[in-house]
Amino acid sequence: MVGWLVCLEGPDRGHDYPLRSGENTLGRSPSMDVCIANDAAVSREKHCIVTFDGVKESFLLAPGESSGLLYMNGESIRSPRHLKRDDTIEVGRTKLVFIPFCDGKYHWGA
Fold first, then answer.
1. What is the maximum span of the chain, computed from C-alpha positions, in angstroms?
2. Chain centroid to CA 89: how far?
3. CB of 20 within 8 A of CB of 52?
4. Percent of the chain beyond pLDDT 70?
5. Is the pTM of this model over 0.70?
6. In what order do the strands lie in the sheet with 94-100?
7. Do 7 and 15 form a contact (C-beta atoms < 8 A)?
């Protein structure tokens, strides 16, 4: 576990989602690493991807294969962006906050 997404707004408000090293896919499907099951406005498969790079100890947010929009800190994104503590991610009617665990003080290495 390298960090969390916590739901601030939307049908799953208050729910937390652990993130693992490597790619974390987000969508409504139970097969997704981060399953936002109760928001029909979130794509079923790969609405977006949160990646932890253990070598660089950095997090990235990237659009997935969805036609739905992806927002970071209120801005629409179409290419990968670095995630920092307390950045917000919006998919469908869901707003999530990013909380890293591996961000300097703690790390697992590559």
1. 37
2. 7
3. yes
4. 97
5. yes
6. 16-19, 3-9, 94-100, 88-91, 70-72, 75-76
7. yes
State the Cα–Cα distance between residues 110 and 43, nearest whole angstrom. 31
Sheet holding 58-63, edge to edge: 34-35, 22-27, 48-53, 58-63, 81-83
Contact between 58 and 41 under an 8 Å Cβ cutoff? The reply is: no
Distance CA 41, CA 23 (A): 22
Q: Dig out the tokens for 81 from the structure.
A: 């962006």
Report the DSSP pairing between strands 48-53 and 22-27.
Answer: antiparallel
Q: pLDDT per residue over 58-74, tens digit each?
A: 999 999 998 889 999 99
Task: Look at residue 22 and give its three-state secondary structure.
Answer: strand
